[in-house]
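Changelog excerpt: complex records now keep ligands as SMILES alongside chain sequences, and the structure block spans every component. Example after the change:
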Amino acid sequence: MKRSKTTIAILTCVTAAVVFCSPSVMMGYTIFGFALGQSTSNYQRDHRVFCNFEDNAANNNSNPEAAFPGALGAKLALWKAAVAWNSQNGGNRAFESDWQGEANSGGNVNQNTSSSLEQSCGGGTLAFTENPDNSGWRIKYCEEWTWEDGPTVTGGRVDLQGVGAHEYGHAIGIGHSQGGNCNVGCSSRPTMCASICSNGVSERTINGDDRGAITDIYGSIPGNKPLITNVTGFSTVGSPITITGSNFAANVAVKFTANTTQDSGVIPGVVYGAMTTNGGTEVVVNIPFDALSGNVFVWQSGQGGLSNYWPLEIIEIAPTVSMIDPPCGQLRGGETVTVQGSNFSGSAEIFLDGQAISTTALTSTMLTGVTPEGSGPGTFVDVTVTQDAGSDTLPNAFEYKENEIAVELSGSLRAGTNLKIDVYGPANSRVAVAVGSPGEIKRLGFCFCIESPFPFVQRYGAGHNTGPTGHIQIVWSGIQGPVFTQWSVTGVIDPPASSNIQLPCESFSVLP
Ligand SMILES: [Zn+2]
């Protein structure tokens, strides 16, 4: 049951950080005492949205805006919310937020993601910011409210953009405005007041007190801050774009939206080491394959930091798939394959037999993924690459082969707990497994590399069979110890129409 907004809605402070509940008071605004970095070793200006809001109204705005390419619904509202704090919106502050697009989960507390809590918060709380500090943040919206993605807000709904601007203020280091600042009409109140005015629309625009806070934390715009004044070019992946402006260093990075949470090292969607021309007023780069519609920055850690944001729509084209390497793999899956083709984008995903697999996009012509378990030996399955702009399929291009014979151990090796024994082999093989202390003994005509006694023997006479997927897991429950501290697992496997084969011998130590 949704609660209609009849009382003052509270914008909570922050969770999991007691120190932030007594922020220092500077004029009306308060600050937490940290700044989100923009360096190559701790980049925290990125943000993204996981669209899991329960209300249709929270994610149904389908009118695109040129300044926010690629974003609609909740994404558009919350991107605009963050941009309210950026340098171009009045005042003199060296702050830029960097839109990274749509996330596929709410992420951890340091992954700078906004999403629904998927439940009520109680206490009149609208939303909260978790763990804001210089290692990142996470924002959650409470579901007892009916969220509205705008642009207009009606009928007792609450404005995602306005509340988003407030919560993002916490994320970047600002506490609640204090003193008499908030005892004024909606249009004059700071965004960082502890409660919203009406439906929250007036919180979309920050005011003088909020500007004081962000300038206090991030400083005034330095004289050498790079400034983008235009971007031209045909914006398909791989095509060159020309960025013009001022204060570009001789050698800059150009940072695109790429839906990445990576905050150090080689970050996806960044073209490093681009040489500028015309006295630091122009740089030409090819749009990297993993760039998505969103924003682009000139990024130079050593000189002036991050430029102003510039919206850039990336026009994706459909992929083509030419081959998969290797073209076959074991029924058990878990093997890395490389798919080659062209026009792959950062949104590309490999599907094997219609099943999406974990995909890493390496370049516009190469993807890698890990095979899932197959349905049977000798099966040929389709290889498909799907991305935002289309998909392409190579029919019957990957063959599942019988498993190689293997025995693998997992689970706890502590006395009194369970050991899981996974046996892989051809489909429909019969299996016997023995566990004992290391050594060698012959039983049933087979060489078990185990001494007597046999505290655990699973005979194939008992009906163990690898089934159509060539895999069975046998659990040895209640490992006994410490009679022996070393154990071995082995056995025999009987592939169809063949003779018995010794399973490899795996040894392990029983933990005390
Ligand atoms: Zn708050």
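The helical segments are 73-83, 160-171, 208-218. The pocket of zinc ion is lined by residues 11-13, 166, 170, 176, 194 (CB under 6 Å).
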